[in-house]
Amino acid sequence: MAFKPNYNQQRAERDRAKRAKREEKLKLQQERTAQRKVGEDGAPVAEDDETPA
After folding, report:
1. Half-sphere exposure at residue 27, Cβ-oriented, CA atoms within 13 angstroms
2. pTM listed for this prediction
3. Phi-psi label, residue 45: left if phi above 0, alpha if psi -120 to 50, beta otherwise
């Protein structure tokens, strides 16, 4: 074995990878939500133009 294992560094690297994956997933989810909201807002809304008097 060339180097003594550095468990704290290995754990920090795993935690960093997990955090990056979570952030990427959250970013993708927020983008999808934003696209869905824009699609809903951009679509013509069927409103009743003829209201009974």
Report:
1. 6
2. 0.59
3. beta
